Description:
By secondary structure, chain A is mainly alpha-helical. Chain A is about 80% helix and about 0% strand. Chains A and B meet through helix 1 of A and helix 28 of B.
Amino acid sequence: MIDVHHYLLLSAILFSIGCFGVLTRKNAIVIFMCIELMLNSVNLTFIALSRHVGNMDGQIFVFFVMTVAAAEAAVGLALMIAFYRNRESIEVDNFNVLKW
Amino acid sequence: MHSYSYLWLIPFFPLVGSIVNGLLGKKIKNEAVIGGIGTLAVFVSFIVSCNYFFTLLGDSVKVHQNVVASWISIGHLQVDWGFLLDPLSALMIMVVTGVGSLIHLYSIGYMHGEEGYYRFFSYLNLFCFAMLMLVLGNNALVMFIGWEGVGLCSYLLIGYYFEKKSAGDAAKKAFVVNRIGDFGFICGLLTLFWALGSKGVWTLNFVEISENAHLLQSGGVLITVVTLAFFLGATGKSAQIPLYTWLPDAMEGPTPVSALIHAATMVTAGVYMIGRMNILFAMSPVTMMVVACIGAATAIFAASIGFAQNDIKRVLAYSTVSQLGYMFLAMGVGAFTAGIFHLMTHAFFKACLFLGSGSVIHGMHHGLHHAHLHDDPQDMRNMGGLAKKMPITYWTFLIATIAISGVPLFSGFFSKDEILWWAFGSTRGHWGLWLIGAIAAAMTAFYMFRCVSMTFWGPQKTNPKAKDHIPESPWTITVPLIVLGFLALVGGYVGVPAALKGANHIHHYFEPVFGHAQEIFHISIKEALEHSHGTEYGLMIVSVLLAFSGIGVAVFMYVKNPELPARFTASFKGLHQAVFNKWYIDELYDFLFVNPTKKIGTFLWRGFDVKLVDGVVNGCAWVVKGLGAGLRYTQSGYLHNYAVAMVVGVVVIVGYYVFG
């Protein structure tokens, strides 16, 4: 049987991959995709545990998370467009002016 | 039954005068109005004082208190804003307000044209207020307010010409030296309060202290410490050894200030204080002997310095120190009445002398200014022959000089002789003290007549361009001189001793104040000498002879043989230098106290304040700066660093909750 811990394990792996991507990749779009990956892994965790516990709360919360993910993606992309207009690139290595 | 509940008016009027002149004086440009307000304030106080003085004379009860309000009421301590009227304070208020009014009147003319005219009158009124609080206070704390207040006003008035560095220095010196005395006063006050309190009587009220003084052990360590501490305060305020050095420098102030504060009133505060607390002093023979010895020593020491001074005001300043020595000699041998009697006669003749010297300086200034010369108008070597130029000044000055020299029939003779008689014949006296006093009396006669002959007699030594332009002073100056001269002449007749067939009114007047202590502690003229007047006549004749010999030597040296002083100075060069330089006491104090204190101050400034305190404060800032320098590298601007930090943070927090 596919048990709850299988789902949790998958979720953890997805989260780790997403986290690794955020910390390592240079392209801002790829970083956004990794953030989405992390959010979705959390969604998976919520649903799995919701089924396991028997409560509907987890599944309701997923809706909220998805909404936030969507809003965040929109804002982030707008931000990237503004950056591109300034720097001609969206490599996060180039966003380093606000430093000591 | 007359009401004594308006005693508070006596210090009140000068206070109001001071405030009005102080706040509004700058706007009231009219000198007559400012001077009028100041003089009127003190004069009204004088009228009220007269009223109370004569009421008290006719009253059988001699001690009256007027409590206006409660001031401190904590636990056992109850201190009021209260005033005490008894024969002692009644006489003091008469002297203070009477002489004060005359000096205010004098100042209207003398201070004419001064930039800070209103400031002068404001301070002078404030001084009168403080002095009246001192003499009228019914408890030691109100007296102390007055005590400190007169010290403050002395500082303000000595430093009146504050643009002159020497005046500012003199004012600071007066204040600091006074403070040392004040420290003694406070120590005495606190010890007394504690000592009486430990016997169950918690009070600072003079009447209660006198009533309960017997609870302390007579002649014991405690009472001796208390009285010696109070006497230290008196040496500071009344310029005795060792704290007299401020008085000669105080001559930097205007002459009316010298007359009022440093002759007639403030410097007598110490004598008054001993009179007020006579029972405490009577209980300690040790202290009384110390007081008498210091008084006698100061009398002769200051007289010696007066021999060589050329500034007319300096001569009078040292004369004041010397005469105050006489007053303390009197208090020390138990002649409280004689001490206060001499205080009164001294106020008259010394104020007359100072105001007279002011008149001379005023005239000299006029002449020298007219000739555009910069000679010192106070230097007696520039004077001479002024008797014809300034007759009223001359005659009043001469009368006061004869009085101070102790010539019979003038006031000084009666008071000084009473002191010398008690120094010789009192149960607490000693013939040695009499001897020192008698020699000092001869010296007094000498240097005062030296002063008169250098100033008024002989040929005029003033620059020829100025000598014919020295006028007599206006009426506002000469009228007070005449009044004071008259008082210096007749003021002694209240105290003609029994030996000279007099009723000695003043002795009976002071009975209620001093009689009790003198009776209990057997302070009086020794039995053997009391009844026959032989010894008394003998001593009187000796002092008269000494006075005339002093006058004789002065006349011989300065009028008949004017070249004699210069030859004398040349042959005794070392001695003359020492006396002229005030026996180098100021230099000694500089070496012992002033310079070490300055060094300590400099060390605390450079070593402690700059290095340590500033170092700590700057060090804190340096540490913060260092921390910042280290921490700022976390703001790298590199996005991934921030992301890593966030992840690590989350892991730590979650880990804490899961595993901790």
